[in-house]
Amino acid sequence: MFDILMYLFENYVHSEVELMVDEDELTKELTRAGFHQSEILKALNWLERLAALQESESPYLAASNKHSFRIYTAEEMDKLDVECRGFLFFLEQINVLSFETREMVIDRVMELEESALVLEDLKWVILMVLFNAPGNESAYAQMEDLIFEQPDGRLHS
Questions:
Q1: Cα dist from 95 to 4, 5, 62, whole Å
Q2: CA distance 10 to 6
Q3: CA dihedral 40, 35, 22, 112 (to 10 degrees)
Q4: pLDDT tens for residues 89-101?
Q5: Are 46 and 5 in contact (CB under 8 A)?
Q6: Contact 2/79 with Cβ under 8 angstroms?
Q7: From the CA atom positions of the chain, what is the Rg in Å?
Q8: What is the pTM of this model?
């Protein structure tokens, strides 16, 4: 499923071509690209749920404020190792992620089938969330700069 998300992101994010809205045509394109039907449906559902996060008031955000801190559940710690959690904290400190977008990232990570996420994959999830969250254009650009303009490929030490 993650490979399909990456395929869509890489092929449509910087493209002048709009992401096809017709699910049947998109499914056919992804099938021609070699992806399995069941994985395509999971990826499209993941994207639909990402879009739904923009439209709804999330109950876990209601009590948050700028002085709160995040405590991870055991399941979240299993999926996001200490390097990933540290990176999320780093992005909050430099104002790339707000507590809302951080929670959106964690929500989307938890829906991925991978048992544990590596930092490189987390970076792509963050880009997908920021790209799809209105009003986060500068955070998206800053995240792109962090990823693509580091001479040794490391975001921070």
A1: 29, 25, 20
A2: 6
A3: 30
A4: 999 999 999 988 9
A5: yes
A6: no
A7: 16
A8: 0.80
Under DSSP, is residue 17 helix (H, G, I), strand (E, B) or coil? coil
pLDDT digits (tens, 9 = 90+) for 6-46: 888 887 766 555 555 677 888 898 999 999 999 999 998 99
Q: Are 121 and 156 in contact (CB under 8 A)?
A: no
Closest CA to 88 of 65, 105, 67, 68: 105
SS (H, E, C) 53-120: HHHCCCHHHCCCCCCCCCCCCHHHHHHECHHHHHHHHHHHHCCCCCHHHHHHHHHHHHCCCCCCECHH
Instruction: Give the rounded distance of the alpha carbon of 45 from its chain centre.
Output: 14
